[in-house]
């Protein structure tokens, strides 16, 4: 084992980490544990010294006090992973690094950067002969230490030099690393953004499942037992697993279930909002993900909620005399079906962005590397990956095994949405997912009327079902129709 040092050893480290907060420090430790000599640097040198003193047992580290020393300690091509707060801080670190780098060196941004910023940074560094790799890293601080899911973008050339290192520290499922090249420039951060959008939806579905079961009179520990049972079957996933733990937690002050004393206002950091904004720009209806983002916003709008409580009337939320066993099974089915819709929307968004930006992202590979390490890891992702790998899918929803699953579960799904709605229990995630399912399967939609209205007030034209071309009705001139193209 190499003793910790702050003396720069030129060219001895094969990878470097800048930023030693919890995520950066744990990632550096993971790298060291897998046999890599890791150069570490933090703007506050005391943090670097603390890391060296605390984690020498994990492997070989080389500490530096200046950026120049840090860069000098790395072998060529230099592989530098930036783990600082996204935004201006990332640009500041890049600016400081550039004067010390040489052609072919690789700069990795492991933060939750907006993919448009990654595209800008990649183009800038490419002009300087440098590689910039926007990399999504999912799994939180535990994943960073023990094996995350890693979604790198950038050039193929950079992945040839960087990939083996990242794959060595990633989570593994069936012997395969949960890490793969996603595509050029912003592809990696885009995939991570959508991952987080799906994560928002998944947590919203879980919260709604808990709310419906609570409205049936089940206590938090009873619902925890339900989630624990679900985690042994088709819903097996990280989020289902930790939900049981959260619901089981007792508040030591009041003796109540902790979930009952936590303020019911969900916060967010922005990736879910970015997913929705991108969906709008691409014209991809990520409606279920959007509802989860809006549900968080609504939960935190204290002014409106306080104004409405006691003023707006409705059902009491109590589900009444229901068959609990059947309700639990119905909620399970609603949860599975809604999760499938969220995955379908998110993966379609990735495919649309891939076409828009020329990334050539392989959706089956995306699902494969999400099977382990990341927050949305789930048994379902193996099925999804296999279906996309088989090829020819216009949407996940028409994959043979998924069609069978949705057909089997939709009656329970509809019963949950109907019962919750008539009882006054809000289920925006479940209902939005079901509405999307019914929208895409419909042979005809009322969008025809929308087009008629648009043509009436704005002469926006419409298409016809019986012949090609664009048409306009002279609404104020007797209703005659003219073909405009």
Sheet with the most strands: spatial strand order: 3-2-1-4-5-6-7
How large is the radius of gyration?
26 Å
Overall spatial form:
globular
The poorly predicted ranges are 1-7
What string gives the helices and strands in order?
EHEHEHEHEHEHEHEEHHHHHHHHHHHHEE
Q: What is the first-to-last residue Cα distance?
A: 75 Å
Mean pLDDT, to the nearest integer, reads: 96
User: Proportion of β residues?
Assistant: 5-15%
Oligomer: single chain
Quick one: how many beta strands?
Answer: 11
* Classification by helices and strands: alpha/beta
Main sheet summary: 7 strands, mixed
State the helix count.
Answer: 19
Helical content (DSSP H or I, runs of 4+)? 40-55%
Please characterize this protein's 3D structure:
It is a single chain. It is built from 19 helices and eleven strands. The chain has a seven-stranded mixed β-sheet, sandwiched between helices. A two-stranded antiparallel sheet has the order 8-9. The longest helix has 34 residues, at 324-357. Strand 5 (106-109), helix 5 (115-127) and strand 6 (131-138) form a beta-alpha-beta unit. Helix 12 (287-299) packs antiparallel against helix 18. It has 485 residues and is of the alpha/beta class. Mean pLDDT is 96; it is low at 1-7.
């Amino acid at each position: 084992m190499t003793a910790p040092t702050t003396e720069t050893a030129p060219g001895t480290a094969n990878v470097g980490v800048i930023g030693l907060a919890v995520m950066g420090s744990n990632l550096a430790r993971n790298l060291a544990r897998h046999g890599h000599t890791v150069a570490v640097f933090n703007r506050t040198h005391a943090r670097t010294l603390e890391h060296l003193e605390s984690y020498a047992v994990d492997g070989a580290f080389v500490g530096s006090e200046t950026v120049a020393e840090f860069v000098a300690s790395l072998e060529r091509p230099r592989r530098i992973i930036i783990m600082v707060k996204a935004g201006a801080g990332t640009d500041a670190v890049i600016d400081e690094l550039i004067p010390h780098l040489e052609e072919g060196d690789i700069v990795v941004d492991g933060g939750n950067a907006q993919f448009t910023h990654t595209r800008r940074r990649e183009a800038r560094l490419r002009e300087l002969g440098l590689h910039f790799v926007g990399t999504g890293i999912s799994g939180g601080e535990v994943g960073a230490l023990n094996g995350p899911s890693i979604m790198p973008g950038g050039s193929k050339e950079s992945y040839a030099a960087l990939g083996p290192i990242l794959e060595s520290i990633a989570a593994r499922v069936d012997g395969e690393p949960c890490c793969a090249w996603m595509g050029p420039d912003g592809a990696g951060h885009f995939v991570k953004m959508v991952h987080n959008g799906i994560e928002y939806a998944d947590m919203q579905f879980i919260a709604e499942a808990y709310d419906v079961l609570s409205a049936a009179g089940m206590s938090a520990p009873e619902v925890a037992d339900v989630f624990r049972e679900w985690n042994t079957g088709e819903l097996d996933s990280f989020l289902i697993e930790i939900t049981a733990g959260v619901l089981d937690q007792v508040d030591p002050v009041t003796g109540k279930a902790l979930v009952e004393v936590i303020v019911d206002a969900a916060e967010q950091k922005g990736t879910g909002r970015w997913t929705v904004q991108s969906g709008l720009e691409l014209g991809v209806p990520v409606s279920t993900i959007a509802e989860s983002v809006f549900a968080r916003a609504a939960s935190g709008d204290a002014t409106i909620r306080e104004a409405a409580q006691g003023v707006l009337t409705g059902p009491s939320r109590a589900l009444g005399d229901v068959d609990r066993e059947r309700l639990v099974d119905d909620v399970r089915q609603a949860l599975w079906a809604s999760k499938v819709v969220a995955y379908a929307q998110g993966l379609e968004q990735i495919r649309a962005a891939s076409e828009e930006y020329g990334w050539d992202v392989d959706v089956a590979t995306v699902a494969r590397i999400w099977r382990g390490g990341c927050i949305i890891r789930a048994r379902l992702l193996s099925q999804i990956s296999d279906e996309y790998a088989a090829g020819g899918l216009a949407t996940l929803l028409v994959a043979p095994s998924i069609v069978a699953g949705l057909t089997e579960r939709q009656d329970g799904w509809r019963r949950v949405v109907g019962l919750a709605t008539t009882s006054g229990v809000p289920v925006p995630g479940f209902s939005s997912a079901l509405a999307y399912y019914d929208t895409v399967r419909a042979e005809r939609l009322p969008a025809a009327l929308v087009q008629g209205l648009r043509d009436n007030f704005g002469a926006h034209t419409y298409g016809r079902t019986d012949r090609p071309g664009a048409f306009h009705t002279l609404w104020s001139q007797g209703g005659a129709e003219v073909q405009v193209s």
